[in-house]
Write a structure and sequence with these properties.
Layout lengths: L1 H16 L1 H36 L8 H43 L5 H9 L2 H18 L5 H10 L3 H7 L5 H12 L3 H29 L2 H13 L4 H7 L6 H20 L1 H18 L5 H9 L1
Helix pairs in contact: 1-9, 1-13, 2-3, 2-12, 3-4, 3-7, 3-13, 5-6, 7-8, 9-12, 10-12
Amino acid sequence: MKEIFKIFWQSLKLYSGNFTSFLRYMAFPVFGQVLGLLWIIGISFAYITYLPKMLQNNLMNNFSIIFLILLLITLPGFFVMLKAFWEYLVAYGAINSMLDGLIKSGRIYDFPAHNEVITRKTAKFIGVWFVISILTLIALIPIFWIFGAILFVYWILVFQVFVFEPDEGVIGCFKRSFQIIKGKFGQTFLLLLLIGLFTNWFLPFICEQFLSITKILGYLAIPFDSVTVLLPLSEINRKIPTEINSLMLAKQIVLSFANFIILGLTLPMRSICWGLWYKKNVKAKSKIDKRLLQRAEEK
């Protein structure tokens, strides 16, 4: 238990000590997705709102023209969002590449070089994400929930293996993660619970309280209220026990965006945490496989 809190505290210390650098690194991957989605929603809403007036033009009486214009005006948002999403995925691995220097010097630099550690193996990296996506879809089936949750713990170090053991193939990354966690399931689960509660619940809770107390939440919800007010809420309220209105729904949308931003910006802390856990367990097994430890320390 003591070592779990030690790793959690060390990851928090390394993350907070380099917060401005990580904020700069994660700014586009996180806010780019948000801005891209907001562009798509905003421009689509404006287009649909003014569409009746535009239909007075004979040229707009063609469905293909209407759809083509909608596609063209939302395309910039899709481009920004997809580019930001890709860079966010790359960050999952690249932050692990930063870990050795971060531990030794306490600072990080040359982000493009660390990104290149991932992008030069793009096919393999996409393969890892493809397997994760398939397994996630299977785990969403209720009958596989428990089994999926157990495997999630065993495969928590997939990206650490990808970076520190580059000789492993796509499936090898999952097998190696399973081997490292084997015998450490309980401790790994506790660390997952600790880091998850901190970044997925505590920080979003603090943010929600701050936005509510300062009344900022209400102001941010105003633009979304103009959209949610158009929804058939009366029909929805008939089917649910709690009555909701457009402003309540708008506030929840704002909080969802806020939670996404918090989760995105704290990705480095979670990656550092699992990188430290990887290194500790590889070192713990060094008596059995010294060559593996040497290869991991050279990366």
